[in-house]
TrEMBL record:
Subcellular location field: Golgi apparatus, Golgi stack membrane
EC class of the enzyme, as a word: transferase
Domain of life: Eukaryota
Functional summary from the UniProt entry: May be involved in cell wall biosynthesis.
Species this chain originates from: Zizania palustris
Keywords linked to the UniProt accession: Cell wall biogenesis/degradation, Glycoprotein, Glycosyltransferase, Golgi apparatus, Membrane, Transferase, Transmembrane, Transmembrane helix
Full protein name: Fucosyltransferase
Species classification: Eukaryota, Viridiplantae, Streptophyta, Embryophyta, Tracheophyta
Membrane topology: Single-pass type II membrane protein
Full protein segment contained here: 98 to 595 of 598
Amino acid sequence: DASFPYARSAHDNRLLGGLLSEGFEEKSCSSRYETFLYRRNPARRPSPHLVARLRRHEELQRRCGPNTDSYNRAVNRLRDGGKVDAAAHAPEDDRCKYLVSISYRGLGNRILAAASAFLYAVLTDRVLLVDRSNEMDELFCEPFPGTTWLLPRDFPLASYANFSADTAESYGNMLKNKVLRTKTGAGGDASGAQLSAFAYLHLDHDYGHDDKMFFCDDDQRLLSNVQWLVMRTDSYIVPSLFLVTSFQEELDALFPERDAVFHHLGRYLFHPTNHVWGLVARYYRAYLAPARQLIGIQVRVFDRRQAKSPHVLQQITSCAWKEKLLPEVLDAEETPAMPTPTTPGANRSKAVLVTSLRPWYYERIKGMYWERATATGEDVSVHQPSHEEYQHFGEKSHEAKAWAEMYLLSLCDVLVTSGWSTFGYVAQGLGGLKPWVMYKPANITTVPDPPCGRDVSMEPCFHAPPLYDCKLKRGTDTGEMVPHVRHCDDVSWGLKLI
Ligand code: GDP
């Protein structure tokens, strides 16, 4: 029997099998080095190529990041509108290229966006700089030793946070207005075109046809000549990066297990700051560590009328019972006749961690396991750290609780999640857990049948993928192009890695 703190196989060590770098002061970010003691579920092992590539990328972030001469020169060039020709006669370090990732929408969206931007930065040898909006600077430790990933406050494109589909410098608009052209010269590079100092990549879920050309090889070649890219996405765009031919070989080498991409990127990038880690660690030790098995249930309802929905409650319990994740409860009449024998030393308890904006589901489930005996005699305790009632945008304590709860879910043995929710995607990926997904009901008075199903992988779903074949230049089903990129169970047009 596992007893807390847990330490399992050789690669479930403090550096997570080489995923993490040695170069940090431990006290500045305790979670980075303590997480492995809290994880019951063995993690996947990162490939040697991924480990080597991360160390190389850290070196790039230090060499070209904020407070370096290269960064200052690149920023000056951006300020001058790119008048100094970047490609010609530049000293070696002036070839530093940058990707700025805008942070907006909910925490789950922001985490998936930053992970996507990071992978794209690694694939294209760009320095990743993250916009610090929405507490991004307060929730996460710095991921790269000896430098910062936060975009400096004096970044010259002052209006970047308002960039939208209408921004003239968006890649889509520049294509449409022929400011940029693919296939200008032999090899399709941008030699004939006047390159702008930056391009804005509008990859938000509402993006248009021209913006989606980002996912084509010719366009990637063109973009590789632009020194500054600013990306806005609320999605996990990674599955579609796996369909870009020029990235495929490298992605195969980095991720021989394609269903563990976010698992590795997430555990590499997102470490709760000490304040958030306190919330996680205290809660875990007090309420969850004593149980033999931990079941995480993430209840995310997208309709206000479902704050107290008997249908959703029925969906949760029938999922947990049908899949034998939790013991069923006996009828009220049977309960008194079934006193559970107390066996010393036999820990048969299960703890349920409910996360939800509302308290109602937790109260019902907890009441049920108190008032009734279980058919198996197991004891079931039920816990919910907070109920914030609604999403408070940009409020510090709210964001910290959301991050702590996502993280606590990732420490469970088993997960039941709500389909469509990026909050659940992050938890399942960090935890290396293939969840049982509760499908979104067709309307608020029906219970889906079946209530839930086992997901095909722990990867997040990309909710807004392009459905376009770059080579044939026509629409296509991108869920049918390669065996490891498939449609999602919860969002039928979405794409996920398996
Ligand atoms: P999604 O909307 O489900 O895809 O997830 P996001 O994380 O992007 O946005 C939902 C936001 O609502 C979260 O970031 C939190 O701020 C809040 N939220 C949703 N569910 C919970 C929950 O179970 N616990 C807490 N503390 N906050 C939640």
